[in-house]
Specification:
This protein has a single domain, classed as Rossmann fold (3-Layer(aba) Sandwich). About 30% of the residues lie in helices and about 25% in strands. The chain contains four helices and six strands. Strands 1, 2, 3, 4, 5 and 6 form a six-stranded mixed beta sheet that branches. Helix 1 packs across helix 4. Bound molecules: flavin mononucleotide. Flavin mononucleotide binds next to helix 1, strand 3 and strand 5.
């Protein structure tokens, strides 16, 4: 079983913490979204898409990359956000399924957020993702296997 996780974690590296914890497992490769085009996804059994959330969706480059994922690829989703909502996976799931990819599941948790006005109050979701949330991401990955 080989997995690749493609990540975009530009705000505070919050999502990257989840990705790195999973990457400590066997047979998991990791690549940042900038380098994702060069990857042959057919070398992998599972593809993880990991990003922060902006304006209620996965970051734009990741949402765009989802349009290029071929049919029958098994995909799981990882994200961090300032203010959790199940709805954040909606758009990317729709895109993936419209192309015939299989969305196996998603895991999201809070991530330190200093966007816009939140900066003035020192940010929200300080200290997130916590160790427990990071362990939760690893446990989620085990369920996907
Ligand atoms: C431009 C921008 C827009 C954001 N919009 C949302 C949002 O709609 N909902 C939310 O819960 N968090 C939002 N956030 C917070 C980030 O999703 C959160 O801090 C996330 O953990 C950042 O992940 P990263 O450090 O891996 O980039 C936004 C952050 C930025 C920079």
């Amino acid at each position: 079983m080989r997995t690749i996780i493609i990540y975009e974690s530009t705000h505070h590296g919050n999502t990257k913490k989840l990705v790195e914890a999973i990457a400590a497992e066997q047979n998991v490769d990791v690549v940042s979204i900038e380098n994702a085009e060069a990857i042959d996804l057919s070398d992998y059994d599972m593809v993880g898409l990991a990003a922060g959330i902006a304006y209620g969706k996965f970051y734009k480059r990741t949402e765009n990359f989802a349009t290029k994922i071929p049919r029958d690829v098994n995909v799981f989703l990882l994200y961090t956000c300032g203010n959790p909502s199940d709805g954040y996976v909606k758009n990317i799931t729709k895109t993936l399924e419209a192309n015939g990819a299989k969305v196996m599941g998603s895991y999201g948790c809070k991530g330190y957020d200093t966007y816009g006005p939140f900066k003035l109050i020192g940010g929200i979701a300080k200290g997130h993702p916590t160790e427990e949330e990071i362990r939760g991401a690893v446990a989620f990955y085990h369920k996907m296997l």
